[in-house]
User: Fold this.
Amino acid sequence: QSVCKEIKKELEVADLYESVRPRIVALSTIQTVHKLISSAPNLDELLPRLARLVLKVLKARRCSIFMDGSKKDFLINNVTVDIDSPKKVRRQKKVWLGHGLIGKMAKTGTPVLRKNFLGAPMIDEEIIGAIVVTKNRNEDPFTSLDREILTTFTEQAVVALKNARLYAEQEKLTIGAIKTI
Assistant:
């Protein structure tokens, strides 16, 4: 009977750990993104750093960050970072809203979880982008915990991106004012 009680306690502790673990990872992610916000004020530095952080946190193979296009009917793949070449940053194509897996995810504003594909939209008042991560087929699949972590990450990334855009606008205004003077 005492052995059964001990086993029951161990199972309860394991369940508690599994329910608390996502929150710990999410809080850690939030803290790290806040550090990135203050250390990388412009988008050219911020986006690759965010992508590398996602790779580390989710143990993924590749991370792509898509940002809204000028006409708001497509997303542009601003940065893709691959774990095999972490220093190399690749830029790629457009994704039309509502077309393909990424476009549909962005249009609906709903995260997508597949075995080796995970994506979450970045939403401010409207869709401003998306973060997509992939794994190789022979690696452990993504879980709902990973989806929750990526969703939390995208919420914080939106704040970082807004700050970077505001910083860029402020810099342009300051330079314009200096030129005028």
